[in-house]
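Researcher: Going back to the complex we discussed earlier. I've cleaned up the inputs and rechecked each line, so this should be the final set. Can you rerun the prediction on the complete assembly and write out the structure?
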Amino acid sequence: MKYNIIRYNTIDSTNKEAKRQIPSRQEGTVIISEEQTQGKGRLGRNWASTKGKGIWMSIILEPETSMDYMMGITSIGAAAVNMALGDMDIPSKIKWPNDIIVDGKKVCGILTEVVQTLNGCFYAIIGIGINVNQDIVDFSKELHFKASSLKIIKGYDIDRELLLMNVLSRFRELYMKFKLEGDMSKSLKICRENSMVIGKEINLIIGKRIRRGKVLDLNMKGELVVEFDTGIEEISSGEVSIRAIDGYI
Ligand code: BTN
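Model: Rerun complete. Updated structure for the full complex:
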């Protein structure tokens, strides 16, 4: 996969732009913007995307896999960001399914969307947002206690371009293994080893329903294996909270 990086100064959302461009673009197209005016988070939330201070990007993919495995793309992205940060001596944790946590604060979120074209092709768009060089004033009051930037945590400016290249190169390495050999094991290993939730008692929030359970593992598709009173289930979406134990998280 050859990357084709298309840069914007401002855009509504790189995920939205990637969707608009899909008919004419190939796998490996990267849409990246200095600023997003309508950055999208999971579950219909907004994603604050301060100008010039983060990495706001989306990669267009054609994984040629069943819908079932699309969720695994998020795990590949999370593993890639974890490795790329590690390459810059920044240890991080992964909070299933899509948050990267450094020093107890969220610094990165991933939003994978699947698009089917009129001729029946499936594409995946993986949107990655990394809070890199924001200062404390750049975060709203509500975000303050749960999100942060690498700069605030580390105390120095981070080279955004270097981090971008590291994420893209780690992502390609893990994604191509999955695409060509159907092998997601390395990504899953990284997600397991750096998981914030495996072995923990959690609240799983799906819509309005909250269920308490214990996380046992990630399965082969990157889904969460949870033990409830009623038995063991594999969970493909939802939000995990381990608040009682780790502050916001
Ligand atoms: C989340 O944690 O809720 C996911 C956040 C994903 C944000 C990124 S920023 C680049 C891409 N474009 C968007 O509009 N969203 C994703």
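Model: Worth noting: The radius of gyration is 17 Å.
Researcher: Good, that matches what I expected from the previous run.
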